[in-house]
Structure formats: structure tokens, C-alpha cells
Amino acid sequence: MNATVRTLLLDTLDLERLDDDLFRGTSPDAGWQRIFGGQVIAQSLVAAQRTVPPERPVHSLHGYFVRPGDPSVPVIYKVDRVRDGGSFTTRTVSGIQHGAAIFTLMASFQRLEAGLDHQIAMPDVPGPGDLPSGEALGAEILERAPDAIRRYWQRPRPVEFRPVSTDHYFTDAKLPPEQRIWVRVVEDVGDDAALNAAALAYLSDMTLLDTSLFAHGLSVFDQRIQAASLDHAMWFHRPSRVSDWLLYAQDSPSSSGARGLTRGSLFDREGRLVASVAQEGLIRPRREGGAS
Questions:
Q1: Which residues on adjacent β-strands are paired with residue 231?
Q2: Which residues pair with 269 in a beta bridge?
């Protein structure tokens, strides 16, 4: 793994403070036409975290993608300190480019306290060590997959994937709208809870939208589809370390009205449910002549 990839995520999450509640974030030079949604989620969360005491970790966030982000210019993040209560703290964040909001986030933070504890069971799937490594998987996909998917896998990225199944990369058959994929950040993020939460938010936006298309024999790379994330919600249940493998179990219960809904559960290798995710995305068939 080259040095650019090793520092890609940590550099992206290291926002510049412009004022007490104003921050500036930049995008990596990754050849993207628009900013990756997980980046603005994570950077918005970092901005909010920097206005909240560390003893109050994030427990939930809800965001809307308002406009496509331009990776060639910085994003300005403006934090509004909505409330500082006895147990909970609330922040809203606006990500701004060219004088207009591209993303809005509301995040809630809670002081650590004990309480009732239960969770669903982790799916029974092969472990990451029993699945092809990133390089082996990439070689298989580069050899067999369509051009758009090959180009995606050739890009450097700060997250490694090990999907339990790769069938959807190589077929246009209609498949069950579910996916199980092991993920981890390739950098050593360390033990900082706030940084791990932001990195988890970053990777949580990956592969979700694609899952909603499995039932239709399509993918986000299909030129017949206009695809984009519309909103993103996330709940942080337990501490996690994103440099260790996490199982991302996803399913899409519905698509309608040119939108697809996908839910995700993130488990650590010990089977603890560390976070839950929900996202609705635009999955609009392109009209004849390219109009949309």
C-alpha cells in the first residue's frame, strides 16, 4: 500500500479550524467527479465533534445530500450549537461550497452512562481471513468485471473490502437485495473514539446504494441508472476500531418512486453490533436520449 493511500483518510478528516465554529475540509486527489458522500458525512461529524467535550461521544447522526460536492475546492463547515443539555448535546452542521449548502447534518452526543444492553446476532459468514485479500479480489474483478467496475477498483482508497459474495459484479441476474462485506480502514486510526466514529461514518456510505439495485439486476455503475445518495442516518451503539475488520451486513427492504432504501448493521469480529445505518438513494432509470 503506497504512502498516499496510507494517509488518505486521516488527512481528509484533519479539518482546518477557521474560527470557533467554522472549519475547512479538502478532498483527496482521487479522480472523482464529485465528492464521495461518506467524506462529507465524516468531515461534518469531525466539525461537530470539535465543539463537543470528548466525554460526550456521538450516538446518532442524520444528514441530507443537498447538492453534488466539487472535489476541486474546499468545503466550509459551519457548526450551530443547538443545545448543551445535562445528558445530551445537539449540533447542526452545514457543508458549504460556492456559497450554497451541499450537505446538512444533525448530530446528537450523549455523556457516557450505563443502561440496558441487548443486540441482534451477527450473521454466520466466513471470516475475512477465509476470503480473497484486497489484491486477489481486485485482480479477479479487474480480469472479469465490466469497464466501469474495473475503473472503480483501480482507484486508491483508504478502505479495504472483502465481500462474502462477488456474484453481483459479474452478472445482470436479479439477486436478493442483501450484501455481507468485511471492511476496514487500511491506516492505523488508533484508539481515539471520536476519530474512529468519524472514520466509521466515512466507510458507512460505501456499497449501500448498490445493494438496493441487486433485486433489479443493476449496479450503480450501470449507465442506464442515475444513482446518488439522498440521505444518511447512523446510530453508534458501542465503541469500535475501524482499523480492525468489521462485518457490514446490508439489506434493502424496498425501492419505489425512483428511490431505494438500504439498511446496514456493522459488527466487530467479536460479534458486537457497533453501529446501525439507513440510507435512501436515488436510483432513477435514465430516459431515452440521456435526459434525466
A1: 64, 280
A2: none
